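ARCHIVE CARD
Drawer: 12
Card no.: 0347
Subject: one protein chain, sequence and derived structure
Cross-reference: see card 0346
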Amino acid sequence: MHAATVKDERLQDYSQRMEELATRLGLEYYPVDFELVPNNFMMEIAVYGLPVRMPHWSFGIRYIHQLIRQSMGNSRIFEVMFPGDPCHAYLVNNNSLPENTLVVAHVLGHADFSRNNHLFARFMEMAGGHILEQSAARAHQIDAALQEHGQEKVEAVLDAALALEPHIDVNRELHRSRYPTGKIQPAPRNEDDFSRRFHSLPGEALPSAEEQAPRKASVPPHPEYDLLWFIANYAPDLEGWERDIFLAVREESFYFYPVFACQIMNEGWASYWHARLLREADFLPHDLYLSAIKAHSDVVRPYAGDNELALAVNPYHLGFSMWEDLIEKRGIEAARQIMREEDDFGFIRNYLTPELAEKLELFVYETHDDGGIKIANRDIHAVREAILAPKFNYGAPRIAVTRMHQDGSLELTHDHQSDGRGLDVGRAERVLEYISRVWRRPVTLNTVGYSGNPRVVTSKR
């Protein structure tokens, strides 16, 4: 019998017993399908976001970046888990047995989180629990489009859709109807005695027939932040297969949003549970346990490599530290209630205490032109907002469709006040060009530059 087979059989045994222990400790999750895969396949999953996904050149660039980072000793991938019913978890087959035992326990924590957290539950209800099958079907549809319409046409649509990937409105439903058609009726006047006497006064004539006539509803009737949905539904000349690509990218973006919005909570919860499960798994050999705990320490360390200063938050470390603090002070049931109800915004703002921030040495820093770094602020409110700033609006500028003119030209507006930042105008111009290729009419974006001065960016079409 080969050594690899023995290792796999032991892992299967430990996995089954770990799941039994997790159930006894109160974890609730959909079944998890574990699969051992080669490291190169794991990298592809991490880069594409899914095992089978629509083809696009940008994923190749991400793959190269990930390969470089991994060759430098950074960003090692232990596992990828996809929430659903069932969940799907991929483990690297050449990881050591202690590492994969830890990963199994970690995945069970993720599975518990994704089944019980309200945000995951809401988006799973909308998008369904079979993302792998759905994404494979979409990839097949795009392959068919490539055969029928050619790479240049399909790639132009994918360029635009993937450039707008985070521009969805997570407060709206995944499956939406188009805006109501027809005309807007003016609001009925209040015809009480006071109103009648008021309108009978000299100079207070009743509204004209023109003023009382219904108006045609404008499109959009309000600022529309779901750019993928709007283009799919209102682009004047978009063909059916092109609309399908936009809607496919949008649906996958909805699926991934909870993972993005709960990263600190989710990774911390999984790290807490893998540490606890390992500690209480008396069936594990002592040497395996020690090796797994060493891997745990590497995962939740605050610093990258041997550096003694972390300029970016490790979500594993921060989340793990916060859950340990909460469970110690409030108990596991209170922690589970927080896990169900919050996302990272509520979690950080409500439960990252000044004492814990000081203990974890969290601070806001600023950089200088000479490359120097200075601690700018240790105030807890500033620290919380600095952690959350990259998460606002899915990490993308807040941009809305504000007007579709009669000639079909499109006007976009950057909500820079709530966004709290200007735009990289060069990048905005590139994205606008992508949009104009599929909108096929002039597209204009009202924004401000980094210095706060008003800018109008117009597509060249």
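Annotation on reverse: Residues 306-395 form one domain. Residues 57-74, 304-309 have pLDDT under 50 and may be disordered.
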